[in-house]
Amino acid sequence: MTAVRSLHSEKKRSCVKMNWLLSLAAVCVLVPSVHCASVTGWCYHNTSCSDTKWPTLFPSYCAGSRQSPINIVSASATADSNLTAFTFTNYNSDSALTKIENTGKTVKIALASGITISGGGLPDPYDSLQFHLHWGNGSSVPGSEHTVNSKRYAMELHIVNSKATYNGDTALAVTDSTGLAALGFFIEEMSGDATGQPAKWNLLSSYLSKIVNSGNSTAVASGISLDDLLEGVDRTKYYRYLGSLTTPSCNEAVVWTVFKDTIKVSKDVIDKFSTTVRIADDSSELMVNVFRSVQPTQSVTTQSSCSTSGYSLGLLVLSLVLGGVRDI
Ligand SMILES: [Zn+2]
């Protein structure tokens, strides 16, 4: 506890100093261009095609040097004042979700056109195309892809966005080192004994029984917005790094944003994912542990805590001085 406190105050001191340097700092990351390949023949569990084999099976990118997911070490994330708030357009639309599909590897939800993100330190506006999920085996066997300080969460939601100039052509977007922007949200079991919560997550999970087999899909009725599903997350607090698709062919074309706050979902709803959908037909295995192992670390940035803590420190000093003056 003491060690933690002294580390914290040490961090604050270096943070105040860093404030002066922040405006001078510029980060330049050189990344390779990538080419697209259509991919089959990979899996999560069979030893002949699971993630340890991907670098051999798909050497072009899965063996690359900016692969995702990663373990994020929060204390190593450096401050970047360019990581401003996002603008989320039509994330409040009740008719944002159009179709839900069992791909055999995940559950994917297609999004209507006109849903976009910008800001957030991204180089361009991006169109939100789809979201999908990664999970383990029930709430007791976590299955997020990213981990933070080695903690793996129950599930992870990925919203996939493509640079608006590509007009939804992801084959083109993956040839650009920042062509895609992925938003990662951790899902954590809600505390207490609540069931069927949040209501919109319960409603979304009710579609799973209609897409049990790989290839099944069904329309999603209006009534669920992205804002509904992201409830409880402060979207101004996130980690940023340059990485890849987490499935073959692992193209290194993704600007990753991993949000710090978690979405809280009741255990029964989390458990539905690993107990309802299957990887192929009725006789196949349930879809469980659908996440890639963490890859070698990358440099991660985050918001500067300095502006706030520096300001607070300034106020503290000012109030001490004024207090002292009053005492005289
Ligand atoms: Zn994903």
Automatic annotation (TrEMBL):
A single cellular component GO annotation: plasma membrane
InterPro entries attached to this UniProt entry: CA4/CA15, CA_dom, CA_dom_sf, Carbonic_anhydrase_a-class, Carbonic_anhydrase_a-class_CS
First-level EC class: lyase
Catalysis performed (reactions): hydrogencarbonate + H(+) = CO2 + H2O
Cofactor: Zn(2+)
EC nos: 4.2.1.1
Keyword Phosphoprotein in record: no
Keywords carried by this UniProt record: Glycoprotein, Lyase, Metal-binding, Signal, Zinc
Residues covered by the Alpha-carbonic anhydrase domain: 40-306
Gene Ontology molecular function: carbonate dehydratase activity; zinc ion binding
Secretion signal span: 1-36
Protein family membership: Belongs to the alpha-carbonic anhydrase family.
The protein's role, per its UniProt record: Reversible hydration of carbon dioxide.
Protein name per Swiss-Prot or TrEMBL: Carbonic anhydrase
Gene behind this protein: ca15b
